[in-house]
Description:
Blueprint: H1 16-21, H2 24-38, H3 49-60, H4 69-90, E1 117-119, E2 124-126, H5 146-163, H6 167-175, H7 178-186, H8 200-220, H9 225-232, H10 251-269, H11 283-290, H12 295-301
Antiparallel strand pairs: 1-2
Amino acid sequence: MSSEVSPRTPPEGLNVAALISAKGAQLRSWIIKTNEASEKKVLTLSGTVSNGRRPLLLAEFSGLLTTPKSKAVEDVSILLAAESHTLATENHESTSQINPLPSHPAASVIEKEPSITVHADNLSINSTASKISTTNRDMPHHPTLPADALLDDLSKEIEGLARCEGLRDIIQQVESGAVAKIRARYGPSDGRRGTADPSWPKYKNIVSKRERLYRILSEDFAGDKQRYQKKRKRAKEEPESLEDSEHFRSFRKIVEAAPWCEADLLAEREKEQYHGSNGRFCDLQWAGKWGTMNSWEIWRELEDERYEKTKSSTSLSVK
C-alpha cells in the first residue's frame, strides 16, 4: 500500500492535463493505486477510457474541500466540460444532437455557481444544475478546450513527421522540437525498457531516423547546413526519383548508408599509408591526406559512396 496516496490525494503524476490525455494503461494504474490507498475497491477497471476518466476526475478533485470556492468552480467546470466533449466524440454524436459546452471562462453564460460536495467513499460529486443560456448569440457552437488542442497538436505533428521526406524539412522538425516532443510523449522514460507507451512502436522508426539524420549534421558537418545539403545532393549522373523532387536523396537511404560509410572508412584507415613509425594509425598521416574533410566527404572521394544495398553491405545493420 502506498503511504502517499489516499482518496483525497491523487496518485503521483495525476493532474488535469495527464488525466484528460491518458490512455487506458495509465488510467488502470491510477485506479489500482487509488483502490490500494482506500483499502477497498472504490474505483472500477471496467468500461471505456472515458468511463475510466469519470471517477478519476472526481478523485483528482476530492481535495477541493480545502480549495477556494472560485478556483474549485473554475477547475471542475473545465474538467467536466472536457470529459463530456470526449464522451460525445467517442460516441460519434453530431454536434447538433448535444448541447454545446461553454468555452472557458464560463462566467458570461453561467448564472449560478455549482454547489460542490465531495464524498471520499464513493468519490461522487453532487452539483446544483447551472442555468445556462443556449442561444447562438450567447453560446459558441464549437468550443475550444485545452485537452482537445493538446491532442490535436500531437496528432498533427505525428502526421507531419510521417508525411515529410525532404531533408530540409527533417532538419526543421528536429530543431523545432517536434521530434523530441513525440519521443517524450510516447518513448521510454530515460531510455529504460518497458516504460514506453504501448503505441511507441508506431512512431519509433519515424523518430529514430530523424534523430540519426540530424546527428550526422551536428557531428560530421558541425551544424553547417549549407555544407550538409551540398553533400546530400544527388550526383548529376544519378537518376531522379519521384520521392525527391528537389534532387535530394531520401533521408531513409542516408540513414541506412551510415554504417556502410563507417565500415569503408575503417577499412581505409587500416592501410599502411596512414600508419606512423610505430606501425599504428596516425592522425597526422590521415589529416595530411584528407585535411578537414569529414567521413561522408572522404567516402565520396574514395568513390565508395552508395545508397543501395550491395553484396558487401547486406551484412551490415543500421545502427
